Amino acid sequence: MVGKYWFLLCSIILGCLSCSTDKQVNTSPQQPNILFILTDDHAYHAIGAYGERLANLNPTPHLDALAKDGMLFRNVFCNNSICTPSRASILTGQYPQTNGVLDLDGALPADRQYLPIEMKKLGYQTAIIGKWHLKEAPDAFDYYKVLPVQGKYFDPIFITKELGDRREVIDFHGGIQREVNISNSKGHSSDVITDLTLDWLESRPKKDQPFFLMHHYKAPHDDFEYAPRYEDYLADAQIPEPASLYEQPLFGSVATLGENGSLKNRIGTSVSDRHPYRSYTAQYGFQSEDRKQATSNAYQEYLKRYLRCVKGVDDNLGRLFQYLKDNGLWENTIVVYTSDQGMMLGEHDYMDKRWMYEESMRMPLLMHLPEKVNGKEMLQGQQSNLLINNTDFAPTLIELAGGVAPGYMQGKSFAAALEGKSIENWRSDTYYRYWMHMVHHDIPAHLGIRSQDHKLIYYYGEHYDESKNGTGSMWWLKDGCYKIEPTPKAWEFYDLQKDPRETVNRIDEPAYADIVEDMKKRLKHIRKELKETDEKYPHLQEVIEANW
């Protein structure tokens, strides 16, 4: 009898230990749901809560409420301001040379879709709905319904994991073609994507299991096709204009302007008619002898279209947030709102993104947090100036889910900051690199670092793929062919405390010589530390070293 009872006791103890181990590795009753919302090109200064020049237009009341009751982060940056690389960094926690996605031709196969892989290990059901833009199917997710490539604003089709309405061969660019399941839809993409997410939340297979849901809008990507119901929104408003749209005599360098201004009209597509092949003045038909008035008219049209797309996103987020509240999910769901990069909204007379300037590389980041996550009290109604970049998202979400970020991720978790704690040995600089030299929007290849107070940019001005030099660009017309050509090499340095709009390049001012020299050393160290040097591209290594 003693042996029998001893066997039962041992079995109970072993069973309890087994359950305890499973809880540590997989799930906990208090695990939060995580809703990660990503828009495309939504600049931080087009969100009211950031208090910038567009705030009084009230474009984002639902996001503003999210920020007021949750957390708002003011210093969040992407490391490459273009859709595909930024998304890859968010999903992998890695910089481009490590995850292999340098530009719009990059692809992310399922075995490198690390964030959903790690979340599933922690017991989460995973889903992604909306824009994907990483060519390979998002097969690491349990469920997906994503736009092919950029997707359409109206009546978009979706690639689905399960059998949809039909099978179709899709061209994903970069030499990738695949036959995929296609599902049809009717309506504006922001409305449709929200409907699909609400449908998934309502019918998800395991409602007793926490979810990790990536909800990605196409909006407000160009060319800003808003839903017709927003036609009257801002129709009679005068949108505040940035001063640098018209006048900035001390901005830039020979790399962005050319010798004696010889490239001023060729580098950086424009709002005004400055750029000969692509400008909003020409696109919207506002050419006039009064160039300043034409520029203003083009800017007003651009911003109204853009903000109507933003308004459509915000209204749909109101629907989504209300669903979470009505269904008892809000109090145990972490909601993250960000964008894959920023957007030049007329600053420096630039359109699009790609630049290392603030409006382009800065990402919005707003978070709604349950009162407690993993038994730890979270801050509410606070702001943070911590220097964060998009490689930090995955490690942070993994920690909030109860896990530990794997060693292959290069980003760092800022979860402790959500509790109001300081984080030891946090970065003092964030690294940036734009690889797509003179493609699409005529922006030279460049790299640099941004600290809390200063920014150092180096324009090395050559394509990383040496075989493309002399071929394939949209704008450089030479000998009857469009060609990519090298551009001048130069440094730019901005004092962000004195000059937050980055209108004065102070690279040659003696007062900053020591700071510039120190930042150059730090930039070189960071590139080596992050494996972001150019051993694979010896022609770039030679150019960069020669002009350092």
Characterise the protein shown here.
There is one protein chain. The protein has helices at residues 2-25, 61-69, 83-92, 96-99, 114-121, 189-203, 254-257, 280-283, 291-326, 358-361, 393-400, 513-529, 538-546; strands at residues 33-39, 71-73, 76-77, 125-131, 143-147, 158-160, 166-171, 177-183, 211-216, 333-339, 365-368, 372-373, 376-377, 382-384, 388-389, 429-434, 446-451, 454-459, 477-478, 481-482, 490-495. The chain is an alpha/beta fold. The strands form five sheets. Strands 7-8-6-5-4-9-1-10-11-2-14 form an eleven-stranded mixed beta sheet, sandwiched between helices. The chain has a four-stranded antiparallel beta sheet with strand order 16-17-18-21. The chain has a two-stranded parallel ribbon with strand order 3-15. Helix 6 (189-203) runs parallel beside helix 9. The model is unreliable at 1-29 and 470-477 (pLDDT under 50).
Brief overview, please?
The chain is of the alpha/beta class and 548 residues long. The chain has helices spanning 2-25, 61-69, 83-92, 96-99, 114-121, 189-203, 254-257, 280-283, 291-326, 358-361, 393-400, 513-529, 538-546, and strands at residues 33-39, 71-73, 76-77, 125-131, 143-147, 158-160, 166-171, 177-183, 211-216, 333-339, 365-368, 372-373, 376-377, 382-384, 388-389, 429-434, 446-451, 454-459, 477-478, 481-482, 490-495. The strands form 5 sheets. Strands 7-8-6-5-4-9-1-10-11-2-14 form an 11-stranded mixed beta sheet, sandwiched between helices.
